[in-house]
Amino acid sequence: MIIYGVALLSVCLVAGMLVGEYLGILIGVEANVGGVGIAMLLLVLACNTQRLKPMVEGLAGDGIKFWSAMYIPIVVAMAARQNVVAAVDGGLLALVAGVAAVVVSFALVPVLSRIGSQRSRLNDQDGGAH
Amino acid sequence: MEVLEATFVRNGLVVAFAVVGLTVWFSYLLSDRLTAGRIHGSAIAITLGLVAAYVGGLITGGGTGVADIAFLSGVGIMGGGMFRDFAIVATAFGVQLSELKKAGLAGIISIFAGVIVSFVIGGLVAVLFGYTDPVAITTIGAGAVTYIVGPVTGAAIGASSELIALSVAAGLVKSILVMIGTPLVARSIGLDNPQSAMVFGGLMGTTSGVAGGLAATDPKLVPYGAMTATFYTGVGCLLGPSLLFLTVNALF
């Protein structure tokens, strides 16, 4: 049943969002802290749990795959409802601040990615030594 | 005409599915015919969406792009936070736990580095433009983090509504630029594997920007980038009015 997969996805999202909201209250910020990320982790864990297999295989799995495939169209709709006018109206200061933040962050991606790959290489070497 | 509009409005979300479908089809056609597939169809579709949002905002004077045009109001639902988050979580289907663990540390570092770097850059730009008030510098800096961190921080430290609007604008510029720019720079910043996608999500942080940028680059990378990006705004809201404001206050 397709709805089983969709329901599992929904439960993961709501549970993750709830945890994110409580985390926000706990550390005293007015924002959801990582709700979507926690929901994603829950879904990954559910997919790897033997007892939940019937909810992620076959037709039920198609219910999750459908929403995964709807992601790009939804992002297109998301783009179409952005407040682009406000971004343009923000003037030179907003433009320079936004552009500079993006350019520097882009430049840092390869730098920080190296931390990840070096560590995994070290782990691989450790594994080889034992 | 009245019947037409009423029908479109009453079936808003369904109309949105049709309109977005048409847009995506047209974008892939352009991608094929004009660029021989070099520019990804979804990148064109997202850009068309942003252009439409600009036109919609000009026509209606509203704040949610084409969604303010009555017969396209369903696009607002389809592209709203609920469906966006639902689809993002669905992309995690099939993600390998081992990939997540491999980039875990780099991912966490990138979230903090991303918030601090964007804040410092935004604050520096504010100073360059002649601002000397710590509240103004902090609010604009926080806006360069994301367009949510800006107003949350500004409100917490008592910034004026003009400053808050400015910080939202800076955040919007960032988000839109990440959507459009990511596919263009992906190759030169090594954005082609789960680890760098997690670092990318942590550094950029804007959920909409990362979602759009990675969708236009390689949909397989989306869950990894989204995973870290989703923690970014929370960390920004935590650091902005506290540690970062206190630091700026001590300096100016």
First-residue to last-residue Cα separation of chain B: 60 Å
Assign the structural class of chain B, choosing from mainly alpha, mainly beta, alpha/beta, alpha+beta, or little secondary structure.
mainly alpha
Low-pLDDT residue spans of chain B: none
- The general outline of chain B is globular
Overall tally of domains of chain A: 2
**Main sheet summary of chain B:** none
Number of helices of chain A: 6
Average pLDDT for all residues of chain B: 88
Strand residues, percent of chain A: under 5%
**Quantity of strands of chain A, as a count:** 0
Using only C-alpha atoms, the radius of gyration of chain A works out to 21 Å
Number of helices of chain B: 13
β-strand number of chain B: 0
What oligomeric state do these chains adopt? heterodimer
The string of secondary-structure elements of chain B, in order, is HHHHHHHHHHHHH
**Overall body shape of chain A:** extended
Largest interface: A-B, 82 and 117 residues
General description of the model:
The complex is a heterodimer of chains A (130) and B (252). Chain A is 82% helix and 0% strand. The model of chain A is unreliable at 126-130 (pLDDT under 50). Chain A has 2 domains: 1-82, no CATH class; 83-130. In chain A, α1 (2-27) packs across α2 (35-47) and α1 crosses α3 (58-69). The longest helix of chain A has 39 residues, at 91-129. With 130 residues, chain A is an all-alpha fold. Chain B folds into 2 domains: 2-79, no CATH class; 97-251, no CATH class. Chain B is built from 13 helices and no strands. Chain B has helices spanning 2-10, 12-35, 41-60, 73-78, 81-91, 97-102, 104-128, 134-145, 149-157, 161-185, 194-204, 207-217, 222-251. In chain B, α2 (12-35) crosses α3 and α11 (194-204) runs antiparallel to α12 (207-217). Chain B is globular, with a radius of gyration of 19 Å. Classes of the chains: A mainly alpha (130), B mainly alpha (252). At the A-B interface, α1, α2, α3, α4 and α5 of A face α2, α3, α4, α5 and α6 of B.
